[in-house]
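can u pls check wat happens w/ FE2/S2 (inorganic) cluster
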Amino acid sequence: MAYIKLVESSLKTIKDICASFGYRKGDLINVLHKVQGALGYLSAETQEAVAKELGISAATVYGVVSFYSFFTMKPKGNHPISICMGTACYVRGAEKVVNEFKKQLGVEIGETTEDGVFSLTCLRCVGACGLAPVVTVGEKVYGHVVPDGVEGILNEYK
Ligand code: FES
């Protein structure tokens, strides 16, 4: 069964987090947030373990994880790149910026490069509309990004 594929330490982390929320089914989103923060992403095995601990179905957990864009089922790259696709960024050309990142990295949204260095995701408004289009790499925020600037951003992390 997939459940036992998790390493012992990950399983303990999941159990501790579920316990800290009193195994309340209503805290599923909060539990998943904490687990993703601790383990980096929510694999199928992790979702199963959370489901078992909270006494709910794996399908319920999967439904929540797949609904919210801030949950990820795949490991992120060492440098996770997020492009804001909120209205202000979109109208100022975020889509072209996304396409340039895709082209240069050879991955689609939601994917990680084969060497594990970069992953690519889109976000809703990050609250810096005056800097649109906005891109974040890890904690660093880049404003007024244009397709021609993508290579320079990537080079900072190579
Ligand atoms: S729409 Fe991109 S920061 Fe607000």
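The longest strand covers residues 79-84.
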